[in-house]
Design brief:
Layout: H1 3-30, H2 36-51, H3 56-72, H4 87-151, H5 158-189, E1 200-203, H6 204-218, E2 223-227, E3 234-237, H7 239-255, E4 262-270, E5 273-280, H8 313-325, E6 329-334, E7 340-347
Helix pairs in contact: 1-2, 1-3, 2-3, 2-4, 3-4, 4-5, 4-8, 5-7, 5-8, 6-7, 7-8
């Protein structure tokens, strides 16, 4: 067991036992009897068994609690008396609670780990299926264009050669985007072997600014507007991954909006979270595609108007994986004034939440 885990579990045990002891002292001053003390310590043992790993901390807490109740809260005070009626029963009860709750907690944690592993394998499977198509298509186009130029160089006009070179550059940029998505997934998988990441507090303004700068280099003709709160926002996140999400969402707005000419990126603080929005003035998203947009199974065959060389499933499924690893969520919708809105939220503090 890692040292930080031992320290964490020890602090939890000491904290709960200390809180129970302090609470018993407070109640004892107002109450005429001390019958509540064993019940409070049984409750403390239950919490310790629930929030620590393994059995040892609950069992140790049971022993400390029984001796503590006997020594501090049972007459004669501050003296050990093993002849007190019910003492063995109290000890056995606390020990049974500790073992039962620890066993249940261990089982729940194992089931949760199995679920996370299954989700990760599903994500990898979806990613590999998408990549097998998305890498083959641009590579075929690059090879075909390069072969035409090399084999017919003297017969092609300068304009035709330039068109082929532009196609090669465009397909190469798409390949770079796929590789960046793959690196994002690898970055998630390398953190402890599960869909979790190490978060640091980052400035929202810096992350959005960096993402917009990357997008403008690739799409200089698309207008980009940024709307952020006046006060600086610090949010726990993996800045590289969230920047990748924003770039993916902006690029999807252009690639699949048909006539997108403007993209707006904004962020708002809502209670204990920050919500990011990417709006566009494009053609929007077909209602039938919205439910499966983030699943990684959405293909160009599901969207007749999509560029036949492009697939929006891989990028958005990667985005969803990244946001869920941050304990956030995503959704897509069409705007009343036209165009699409893709949004996601991140919690201001570690923990889980749900879309409200």
């Amino acid at each position: 067991m890692k040292q930080h885990t031992v320290i964490k579990n020890s602090l939890i045990t000491a904290g709960i036992l200390g809180a129970a002891t302090g609470f018993c002292f407070l109640i004892q001053e107002a109450a005429e009897s001390d019958t509540h003390v064993p019940l409070l310590f049984v409750l403390a043992v239950l919490f310790i068994s629930r929030f620590t790993d393994g059995y040892i901390y609950g069992i140790v807490a049971s022993m400390i609690a029984v001796v503590g109740v006997n020594y501090v809260f049972t007459y004669p005070y501050f003296a050990i008396d093993f002849t007190i009626t019910g003492y063995p029963v109290t000890f056995i009860a606390m020990l049974a609670v500790a073992c039962s709750v620890s066993a249940l907690t261990t089982q729940i944690k194992k089931q949760e780990q199995i679920r996370l592993e299954a989700e990760k394998e599903k994500m990898r499977g979806n990613l590999l299926r998408a990549v097998s198509h998305d890498i083959r298509t641009p590579l075929t186009s690059i090879m075909g264009a390069a072969s035409v130029v090399l084999e017919n160089y003297g017969e092609l006009s300068d304009e035709k050669r330039m068109d082929f070179l532009k196609d090669i550059r465009e397909e190469s940029q798409w390949l770079i985007q796929i590789v960046e998505n793959l690196l994002s997934i690898t970055r998630i998988g390398d953190n402890g072997g599960s869909a979790s990441i190490d978060k640091q507090e980052e400035m929202v303004e810096e992350i959005v600014g960096s993402a917009v700068l990357k997008f403008r280099k690739r799409y200089p003709d698309v207008e980009v507007a940024v709307r952020l709160p006046e006060d600086p926002l610090l949010v726990p996140m993996d800045g590289i991954l969230i920047e990748q999400v924003l770039v993916n969402l902006m690029e999807n707005s252009v690639l699949h909006g048909k006539h997108t000419s403007k993209v707006e990126v904004s962020a708002e603080e809502e209670k204990d979270r920050v919500v990011f929005y990417v709006d566009d003035d494009g053609a929007g998203i077909r209602p039938s595609a919205l439910p499966k947009l983030f699943e990684g199974t959405f293909r160009q065959g599901d969207e007749e108007s999509c560029d036949s060389r492009r697939n929006m499933g891989i990028g958005l499924s990667v985005c969803m994986s990244i946001i869920r690893a941050h304990q956030g969520d995503m959704k897509a919708e069409n705007r009343k004034e036209g165009g699409a809105r893709l949004s996601f939220w991140l919690p201001m503090e570690r923990g889980t939440d749900q879309w409200r």
